[in-house]
Prior knowledge:
Number of strands: 8
Shape: globular
Distance between the termini: 36 Å
Bound molecules: SN-glycerol-3-phosphate
CATH topology: TIM Barrel
Amino acid sequence: MKFFVDTADVDEIRELAETGLLDGVTTNPSLVAKTGRDFKETIKEICAIVDGPVSAEVAAIDADGMVTEGRVLAEIASNVTIKVPLTFDGLKACRTLTQSGTMVNVTLCFNANQALMAAKAGATFVSPFIGRLDDIGLDGMELISEIRMIYDNYDALETQVLAASIRSPNHVKISALAGADVATVPPGVLRDLIKHPLTDKGLEMFTADWNKTGQSIT
Ligand code: G3P
């Protein structure tokens, strides 16, 4: 399973990239607005830090506008992935952009039929939003399983399932169990994936016992 980080915060990305655990980055207009920085400059900086796909979302909502913006963003670096919404126009733009060799992440996916259509449009990634479905009392995890099942039924559908709107380590675990290809995870949740109180407690004990031996390994 690949891990992307869901943020436009360049410092966070730099720090997480140093762990070697990062396979890519996703941003969205809300995350960009949060930084208060220039969008294209931010994407350029992120692409210089991370080799994997870096999602940059278009602002236009008509197909021609999305294609025009997508081409401008794709010029920034070869790993830019254009994010388009899961609308009729978004899928038209997806087809045009993928046909010219640009990676596309179709975002705001909330049901299995939408994911099927994104794959038919040649999307590189589809982003089902788990947390936002859970927020309205539906089951985000069930959606990931359904998409996985549908894509596995047809060899011609090569779109990768990118679990998005992840809010907790449990969302990551269930995405992995359901066979998501990628999880895009907020920095805080990514750090939490590594933590366990028994790990901390065990390490404390081992360190104390080691110190009692008075030895040094180096
Ligand atoms: O980047 C898309 C997605 O991950 C947004 O998550 O938490 O705003 O629903 P959230």
